[in-house]
Structure formats: C-alpha cells, structure tokens
Here is the input.
Amino acid sequence: MEGLADSWRGAVHAIDFDPRWVKAALRAGGEADAYTAHLIDQTLTLLAAERPSLLFTTARLLLELAMRLPRPLHSYGIRAVCTGGTSCTAAEAAFLRQEHLRGVQWIDTYGNTLVGHALQADVTDDGAAERRAAGAGHSYHLPPPFAVLKVVDPGDPWREVAVGERGRVRATTLLEDLFLPNLLERDSAVRTGPHPWFPWDGVAAVRPFQEDGEASAEAVEGVY
Here is the structure.
C-alpha cells in the first residue's frame, strides 16, 4: 500500500490490529465487539480528518464500518475500497453494494502473503446459472505465473474437483526465490471455469475449511 501511495504521491494512514488476539478471545468464549469498535473508532477519525481516496480493509470490518457510518462512504472522499482476508457471502456483498457503496468502486480480493491476491471477476450471463447452483457469487482468479490455485477433493488432494463443485484450496507458489508446491490452504471454495476477463479457472464462495469431524463447529475468522 505504501508503494501504491508513493506512485500516486499520496500518504498512507495505517491502523494496526492483531487478528490472532481476536481469534484467541473468541475461542475462549469472549467477544470481539470491543476490539472491533476500537478499530472502527480510529477509522472514523481518519475518514473525517484526512478524507482518503482509497480504503483497504477486510470484508468483516467493512461491514462493521458501514453499519456505523452516519453518512455514505463516498461523502468522506472515498472513491474505491479494496478488501481481502475474511470471506464475504453473496448476501453481504449485495447489501454493501446496494446500501453503502453507491458511487464507490469496490475491489474484493482473495489470497494471502504466499500467493498474492486473486482478482474479483463479476458474474457473467454465461456463468450465472452455474454459480447460483453452487451457491456462489463472483469468482476470484489468480494472475499467473507467480502462483496457481486448484480446488481439490479433501479426501484425495491430488484430484481436482469438477467445475461447480466444492473442495479444498491447494496453492503452488512459483516465485524466483520461493517455490512452495501443493500447499493445502485453510479454505474451501467452489471451482469455477474460465471467465471472459481471466481465461483460466477460478474459485468462488470461499469459506474456512473444516475437517469432517468439525462439520458441526463454527469456524472462527475474527476480524481478518
């Protein structure tokens, strides 16, 4: 983000938070509301004082922020929002777009430090029926050649699932100084086919992966 700001001759106003602390509190039976409110209070102060053009956050914190904003996000000078980290359901995404992000470009991504960011691709007419059948909204496509995502059978991680089926995400990182083959991620996703914007497979409806014995337990994502 600092490099991007430098290229625009702008400045970065960062708010630090520790998602590990929040997840630990939730697992212990505590609540994350107070910590989330602490983060949102800082964000509101910066929005009012600095009027930034770009907001980079997680989907969970964007939802919390939208519920507390007294005015639409664009009235603070925000022109675009980029989110990553926590998953966002199709219903939550529709709510944000319709109620809080009018006039703001929203760029949702999926990824991590090892594979980078898979870019959002909106649903097209060709793929609408397939996505609805799988309970998926927009898809994410990772630009090659630096990393590759596959959706595989949890019981047989060497077998890719068919397009439209859910499986576990398997990633391979292909950097000049780092080669990590076939890393099983902590996420499950629906495999999607090529998109007009990205002519290779993608993933959709991303959510935390749970083993068969954990099916009844609720996954903890916290604020990230």
Q: What stands out?
A: Helices lie at 2-7, 19-27, 33-50, 59-68, 90-99, 128-133. The chain has six helices and ten strands.
